[in-house]
């Protein structure tokens, strides 16, 4: 496994760069964002992921380790190979990609060339618990609200269902009071059970 390459940029194309590593020109496949940051003759260090196939060894390069880690993670989903994974990172930065997967945002995922609705659904199902995103409610929301929201998500409800239940329950709460979290959670669960 080659974790990174460092050296002067010898050449840049639309899809790759050649990095001179100790006198050896390493061709590294890169996203457009990474390519745009490279200048011939300047020294760079790219985090890399090596993909081994029967007929090829391909090195994919990224401007940071976070991009590389997301590239490797999304490939663990069925039907996602290195080209689609690279396209995902060309369109979405790692944080936005994490959010889209964690929140089941199919519209954002299908904006990536090569990912249809079924593929996006599969990616969400397979990776939602592995992307490390905690869905948050609006900034400035009371602490009890985010606690109940997280609890509902932890119990398997979708973000949309949790938000809707919280809206219904919070409408019945007296203004300016700090409600009991367990009572609000119980009321939210009752509301969700009725809506099924």
Characterization of the model:
The chain has 3 domains: 59 residues, OB fold (Dihydrolipoamide Acetyltransferase, E2P), CATH 2.40.50.140; 63 residues, 5' to 3' exonuclease, C-terminal subdomain (DNA polymerase, domain 1), CATH 1.10.150.20; 53 residues, Helicase, Ruva Protein, domain 3 (Orthogonal Bundle), CATH 1.10.8. 45% of the residues lie in helices and 20% in strands. About 3% of the residues have low confidence. Strands 1-2-3-5-4 form a 5-stranded mixed beta barrel. It has 9 helices and 5 strands. The termini are far apart. The chain is α+β, with helices and mostly antiparallel strands and 196 residues long. The radius of gyration is 22 Å and the shape is elongated. GO terms for molecular function: ATP binding; four-way junction DNA binding; four-way junction helicase activity. This is Holliday junction branch migration complex subunit RuvA. One of its GO terms (cellular component) is Holliday junction resolvase complex.
Q: What is the radius of gyration?
A: 22 Å
Which strands sit side by side, in order, in the main sheet? 1-2-3-5-4
- Proper CATH architecture of the largest domain: Orthogonal Bundle
Q: Give the CA-based shape.
A: elongated
What top-tier CATH class of the largest domain fits best?
Mainly Alpha
Terminal CA distance: 49 Å
The named CATH superfamily of the largest domain: 5' to 3' exonuclease, C-terminal subdomain
Mean pLDDT: 87
Q: Let me know the largest β-sheet.
A: 5 strands, mixed, barrel
The helix-and-strand class reads: alpha+beta
Give unreliable regions as ranges: 134-139
The SSE order reads EEEHEEHHHHHHHH
What portion of residues is helical? 40-55%
Count helical runs.
9
Give the amount of beta strand, in percent.
Answer: 15-25%
Strand count: 5
How many domains make up the coordinates?
3
The CATH topology assignment of the largest domain is DNA polymerase, domain 1
Keywords: Cytoplasm, DNA damage, DNA recombination, DNA repair, DNA-binding
Family: Belongs to the RuvA family.
GO molecular function: ATP binding; four-way junction DNA binding; four-way junction helicase activity
Main location: cytoplasm
């Amino acid at each position: 496994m080659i974790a990174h390459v460092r050296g002067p940029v010898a050449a840049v194309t639309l899809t790759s760069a050649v990095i001179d590593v100790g006198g050896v020109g390493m061709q590294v496949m890169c996203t457009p964002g990474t390519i745009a940051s490279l200048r011939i003759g300047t020294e760079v260090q790219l985090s890399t992921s090596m993909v081994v196939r029967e007929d090829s060894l391909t090195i994919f390069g990224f401007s940071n380790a976070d991009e590389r880690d997301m590239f490797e993670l999304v490939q663990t989903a069925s039907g996602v190979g290195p080209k689609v994974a690279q396209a995902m990172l060309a369109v979405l930065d790692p944080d936005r990609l994490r959010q889209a997967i964690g929140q089941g945002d199919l519209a954002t995922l299908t904006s990536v060339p090569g990912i249809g609705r079924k593929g996006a659904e599969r990616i969400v199902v397979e990776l939602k618990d592995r992307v490390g995103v905690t869905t948050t409610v609006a900034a400035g929301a009371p602490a009890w609200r985010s606690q109940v929201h997280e609890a509902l998500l932890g119990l398997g409800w979708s973000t949309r269902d949790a938000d809707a239940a919280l809206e219904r329950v919070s409408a019945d709460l007296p203004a300016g009071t700090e409600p009991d979290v367990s009572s609000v959670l119980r009321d939210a669960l009752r509301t969700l059970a009725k809506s099924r």
